[in-house]
Amino acid sequence: MSEKIIQFTKVKIPMIILSLAMIIGGFTGIAVNGGFNLGIDFLSGVDMRVQIAEKALQVSYTGTDRAVINISEGTLQVNVIRDGGLVKEEKTFNLAEYQNISDLASAVSSIEDISVEVMGSGARSAVSILGLNYESDLTPEGVTLNCRNTDQNKYVDIADIREALSELGTVQIQTVGNEVNQEFIVRMQDKDGEKDFNTKASNSIVKLLENKFGTSNIIIKQSDYVGPKFSKSIGFQSAYLTGFALLLILAYIWFRFRLAYAVSAIAALVHDVCVMIGVIGTFRIEVNTATIAAVLTIIGYSLNDTIVIFDRIRENQGLLRDKDFVKVINISITQSLSRTLITSLTTLLAVLAIYLFGSGMIKIFALNLIVGIVVGTYSSIFIASPILLGWVNAVKKRKVDAAEKKYVDKQVSHDSKGESAPVSEEEKPMPAKSAALSSPSRTKKTGKRRSSKK
Fold first, then answer.
1. Phi, psi of 410, deg, nearest 5
2. In a domain, 419, yes or no
3. Residues 361, 250 share a domain
4. Buried b (16+ CB within 10 A) or exposed e, 61-90
5. pLDDT of residue 429
6. Integer Cα distance of 269 and 413 in angstroms
7. Same-domain check for residues 138 and 65
8. Into how many domains does the chain fold?
9. CA 110 remoteness from chain centre
10. Is the pLDDT confidence value at 176 over 60?
11. Which tens digits make up the pLDDT trace of 256-307?
């Protein structure tokens, strides 16, 4: 073939050693860190997403009808519903049109029976007010509107949150999004299965944070609770689904190709999962349902790469019958290399964009996919094919050893009886003279000699 063939099989031993080192290093990192950073899906307890934000406005309604307020997509909307819902008065205020919070407060106060009190500095930008993204009923007691902290000197970090919640014992804290958002995930484990743990833990977290950062400065964006039975069920089902998927893949490839191909593909997939688990545990990436989804996604992605290479190997075995199997593998990987790299790079770019611009669980999912794509591409080239080569060579050697053992056993059996062992034409050693006469060069010379006698 005219194209340059890359000898991938020459580096199979160093690559396998590298893979073993990554897997051993990953599991060592998990042990050193004391296990995985389990999310609320696998760890029973309460999971709260809180935001630290200063009070900006206190909006009250003293009328006899119903009034609701909402802030969404940069606009503040107040709806007053009169006559049992027959009349609806809507007032919309574009935050960007007001220079500061005081100007916005004056505009909203113009609505009948609505009063607005400025909390803190009224010189802050109106667009810094945080959205509610849901309608909230206005009452005489009022609804508090918070604003984003724009003073970097007053930013709250994880150490501040940990100090505020220190009396609760072991509490996991994680920053969400950019620092300017001042959003945090607070996770508290339910170790003893205490009754009404969700309510007690949530109230304790909010109370301690308000004591530290001020009443009404704590916004609860999300609160979830997972019980002990449910968390164990999710863990079992995740392991079961992953194992079941590998078994189905093994059966499919065995049917589609041969057992050697199936075992090699499964070995590469197990390699990918082990490396991913090692990276996740070592770098303390949160393990949640998104992690399981990422692992299953990478199993399918890596398998697709491996199948493409194996299909080319099987095709080339028929086309290149005169080539050694090692050369067939190297030729097949070289021919599939451009397709593999282009597919992996384009997928990686898309996932990288999700990681950079996403947040929360989708960000963790994208990070796991990035690791999986790199590892899956590597294993399809440097792990799956060398294992296939080793399997095929082992099968050939076993057949040769079995044939030799059969011949030796037959020879020994006849020697013990004092008889010469019957040897078939295939097993009978060729005499030196006959071997010499059977060679092409000897036959050619003999032919010339005979023709000269004639």
1. -65, -40
2. no
3. yes
4. beeeeebbbbbeeeebebbbeeeeeeeeee
5. 47
6. 48
7. yes
8. 3
9. 52
10. yes
11. 778 888 888 889 989 999 999 999 999 888 887 788 888 888 888 888 888 8
Residue 188 pairs in a beta bridge with 46, 171
Residue in 141, 160, 143 with CA at minimum distance from that of residue 56: 143
For residues 351 and 235, membership in a common domain is answered with yes
Range of the domain at 334: 8-41+230-394
Q: How far apart are CA 387 and CA 263, in angstroms?
A: 8
Residue 279 in tokens = 């990276």
**How many C-beta neighbours within 10 Å does residue 347 have?**
16
* pLDDT, average across residues 403-429: 64
- For 372-395, write each residue's pLDDT tens digit: 999 999 999 999 988 998 888 888
pLDDT in tens, 62-97: 988 889 999 888 899 999 888 776 778 889 999 999
Name the DSSP letter for residue 225. E
Contact 6, 330 (CB under 8 A): yes
Strand pairing category for 114-118 and 54-61: antiparallel
Q: Specify if 334 maps to a domain.
A: yes
List, in order, residues 6 or more apart from 155 with CB less than 8 Å away. 149, 179, 180, 182
Cα separation, 149 vs 342, in Å, equals: 44
Record the pTM.
0.63
Residue 340 maps to which CATH number?
A: 1.20.1640.10
* Residue pair 29/282 in contact by the 8 Å Cβ criterion: yes
